[in-house]
Amino acid sequence: MLSARPAVQNLKEYHPPVGGRVGLRLDFNENTQGASPRVLERLRQLDAESLARYPDREPVEREVAAFLRIAPAETLLTNGVDEAIHLLCQTYLEAGCEAIVAVPTFSMYELFAAGSGASVIPVMADDNFRFPTARLLNTINARTRLIAVANPNNPSGAKASSRDLLAIAAAAPEAAVLVDEAYFEFCGETVLNELAKVTNLFVARTFSKAYGMAGLRIGVLIGSAAQMQMVRKVASPYNVNAVALAALPAALQDQAYVERYVAEVRSGRERLETWLNSRGIRYWPSHANFVLANFGSLAQGFVQAMSQRGILVRDRSGDPGCAGCIRMTLGTSSDTDRLSAALEEAVQQIGWVRRTG
Fold first, then answer.
1. Predicted pLDDT at 54
2. CA 89 remoteness from chain centre
3. 243 Cβ neighbours under 8 A, 6+ residues apart
4. What does pTM read for this prediction?
5. Cβ-based neighbour number of residue 30 at 10 Å
6. Model confidence over 99-128: pLDDT tens digits?
7. Where in the chain is the domain with CATH 3.40.640.10?
C-alpha cells in the first residue's frame, strides 16, 4: 500500500482563510491599491503566442539583478517567497538535520522544513517581540542546517539588526541563513550588501506587497553564486509563469508608483499607532505594512465588529505569544480613513475601556 513519507504524514496542514472574504482586505498584508498602470498595460499586450510558449526566466532575472545591483548568477526568480523557502529546504535539509525558526513568524518556514524530514526548533521572541539573538545563537549546533528569519517579522512587525543577523550567519557556517525581506520596502534596511562576504547568507524578496502583484506569485531568492548553483538544481526551469515574467520589468520601471504607495502606508502606520496609543490599546511598533495590537479577551468580538463594517482584519491569537492579538494591514490613505472610522465604532461596540498604567 502506498504511503507518504512519515514527515509528510505528520505535517500540519495549512489552510489560509481565503473563503468568504468580503470587504476591505486588511487581513493578508496585501497591497490595497494594486499594481502599477504600466503593469496592467503590459498585461493587455500579451497575445496567444506569448502564452503558448514555455516561459523564459533568465532575461527577466538579468533585469532584476541589474535593479538590485547584483550578478545574475546570484539571482533566482521564484513562485513567490514560498517557493524560495521550499527550494532552500530541498537543497540543504534532510532527516537528522535541524532548522531554527524565530517565532512567532511566517508559518511556511516550519511547514517546508518539517516536510523535508528535518526537525524544526522554534526559538521564542524576547519580551515585546524583540529578536532573540542570544537564545538563537545558543540553539545553534552541529545539526543546524537552516535558520529562517523574517525581517521585518510577520506578525509582529519587529526587526532584527543587520549586526545580529550577520553574527548568526558567522556562528552557523554550515547552515543556510535565510533573511526573508518580504516587507523591505516599508522598512528600508537590508543585508543584501553583505552577500559577497557571507557565503551562507540568502535574502528573499517579494513583489506581492509593495508592488501589488500577489496574484502573479513572483519573488526572488538571492545568494552567493556557488550556493545558488546548488539551489537551481532543485528548481523547475519553468517555475515562474509567463504572465508574471512579462509584468515584472514594467513594475520595476515604475518606482515612483511604488514609492508613493509605500509613503501612504508608512503614514497610515503612524496614524494607526497613534490612535492605538490614544485608546490605551497595546501595540508593537512596526517596520512593515501592518500593525499588531492586543485586544485581549475582546479580540474575536473586535474582528467581528470590524467585519460588520466591511473591514477584514486578522486574528493572530493562535501564534506563539500572540493571545488576543489582531494584525491590521495598512494601505492607501483613503483605506486608512475607512479603517480609522471603523475602529472608532468597533471599540465602542465591544465595550473597550481605555487601559492605563
1. 97
2. 17
3. 43, 46, 51, 216
4. 0.96
5. 17
6. 999 999 999 999 999 999 999 999 999 999
7. 37-252
- Quote the CA–CA distance of 328 and 323 in Å, as a whole number: 15
Which residue do the cell numbers 526573508 mark? 180
Residues 6+ apart with CB under 8 A from 29: 154, 183, 209, 288, 289, 290, 327, 329
Is 50 exceeded by the pLDDT of residue 357? no
pLDDT in tens, 52-85: 999 999 999 999 999 999 999 999 999 999 999 9
Query: Which residue ranges does the chain devote to CATH 3.90.1150.10?
Result: 6-30+256-350
DSSP 8-class letter at 22 = -
H or E segment and range at residue 176: strand 176-180
Residue 201 CB: number of other CB atoms within 10 A? 25
Going by pLDDT thresholds of 50, 70 and 90, the confidence category of residue 19 is low
Q: Which CATH number fits domain 6-30+256-350: 3.40.50.620, 3.30.360.10, 3.30.420.40, 3.90.1150.10?
A: 3.90.1150.10
Look at residue 240 in the predicted model and tell me its pLDDT.
98
CB burial of 311-330 (b: ≥16 within 10 Å; e: otherwise) equals: bbbbbbbebeebebbbbbbb
Write out the three cell numbers for 349: 461596540
Q: Could you give the C-alpha distances from 315 to 19, 289, 293, 307, 331, in angstroms and in order?
A: 15, 16, 10, 12, 18
| Sign of the torsion angle spanned by Cα atoms 146, 235, 60, 219 | negative
What architecture does CATH give domain 37-252?
3-Layer(aba) Sandwich (3.40)
Rounded Cα–Cα distance for residues 219 and 77 (Å)? 6
- The model's confidence at residue 318, banded by pLDDT at 50, 70 and 90, is very high
Spell out the residues 6+ positions from residue 101 whose beta carbon is closer than 8 angstroms to its own.
Answer: 109, 110, 113, 120, 121, 122, 123, 147, 148
